[in-house]
Amino acid sequence: MGRNWLGNAAIGTAMAMLATPARAQDEAAGPLAIDLVYKGDVVGVAAGDARGARYLDNLDLLASLDLDRAVGWRGGTAFASVLNNLGGRPNDIAGTLQGVNNIEVAGADLLLYQAWIQQSFADDRLSVLVGKYDLNSEFYVNDAASHLIAPAFGIGSELAATGPNGPSIFPRTDLAIRLRAGDERKYVQAVAIRAPRGTTDDGGRRSTLFVAEAGWQGRLSFTLGGWAYSRRQPRIIPPGVTTGPGEAASHGVYASVETDLAGRADEPGHWRAYARAGWSDGRTTPFAGGFQLGVTGRGIVPDRPDSQLSIGVASADLSTPYRRANPPGEPALAGSEGMVELTYSDAVLPFLTLQPDVQYVRRPGGLQDADDAVVLGLRAIVAWKAL
User: Residue-wise over 299-321: b if at least 16 C-beta within 10 A, else e?
Assistant: First the structure.
């Protein structure tokens, strides 16, 4: 359901290059930037009688190239990333529909995660991107929520749970073409992105996901977006995310707002709040919609500029078609699955950040009588800039 914060932060290296003219880049640096980011999580879960601990990790190798400075291709940038994941699955214990860790995967894998080229025009006010692309790197993303570890704070669950294998987000991406117009304050963007292969397709023609988004950025920021698949998608029924009989049109909308509460961006003592909501058809995903809200503070400890504290609340509403399709003999379903998360991080060494995390999940799996789950975690982030 999309990775957050430092997992996507190195991708920001490339995005910053795209948004900033080459003449403004640090001339001491070369046109090629290479970053290595490793995350290792120890996660303990208590959900009723189910208890256990898991270790999981995520390794990103990212490379961005300013093609103007490298070969004279004015306005061009290339980006590629390789992803490797290992480790356990804490959500097997927690039993949630939305997940509890944004680097958890079904199995160990090494893959090319992104590989794209972007061409900018009109002093970077217009750009076209083509290639293998993570939708959540630019769409349905909130910077103020990116510090949190629960997947629901990445991309909204009502969109993340669609498609044969998700909508080209972590850990599976696919080919896309993205158009963007705007400046530092306002923008519009749209993407056509091929749905990755998965367990719910039949090996035939692939569906394409279309997403459009517009927004205003500043001390008060807001976003409005909508999405739809080109082909009808399999219906989803209980238990969990199970393919049901028939197909349905898959579409939805989302909106978000962020605002400064105190301080200034990029300075210690900066606090920022966010709220967002999304709605879907409710037939090709378990969720009719949901919301997330919270607050994050950076540089909150004196003389600790890298200290960061975030709290978030998320709720995903189960759709009426999904609840009506609950098979006889299965546990009764509630109307929603909710959770709250509190996390703090700080750099203890120039290359090492530690991030303790606690989550409380209400009605895991959307089950009416399920015991609530408590998730405790510690994330270690090692970041190395090779070039």
Answer: bbeeeebebbbbbbebbbbbbeb
Residues 6+ apart with CB under 8 A from 194: 168, 174, 175, 176, 206, 207, 208, 209
CA atoms within 13 A on the CB side of 366: 26
Write the single-letter amino acid at 225: G
Instruction: Give 139's DSSP letter.
Output: S
Mean pLDDT, 10 residues at a time, the chain of 387 residues: 51 47 53 97 95 97 97 96 94 96 92 97 96 97 96 95 85 96 96 80 77 97 97 89 88 97 93 97 93 97 95 97 93 96 97 98 95 98 94
Question: Would you say how long the chain is, in residues?
Answer: 387
- Going by their DSSP bridges, the two strands 287-298 and 308-318 should be labelled as antiparallel
Q: Which residues contact 378 (CB under 8 A, 6 or more apart)?
A: 41, 42, 354, 355, 356, 357
Name the maximum alpha-carbon separation found in the chain. Answer: 67
The distance in angstroms from the start CA to the end CA of the chain is: 29
Nearest-angstrom CA–CA distance, 268 and 262: 10
* Cβ neighbours, 10 Å, residue 341: 26
Residues 286, 236 contacting (CB under 8 angstroms): yes
| CA of residue 384 relative to chain centroid, distance | 22
- pTM summary value: 0.90
CA distance 49 to 103: 25
- Whole-Å CA distances, 328 to 137, 287, 331: 40, 20, 9
Q: Please, are residues 157 and 100 in contact by the beta-carbon 8 Å criterion? A: no
Helices then strands, counting H and E runs in the chain, come out as 5, 18
Across 265-298, b (16+ Cβ under 10 Å) vs e yields eeebebbbebbbbbbbbbbbbbbbbbbbbbbbbb
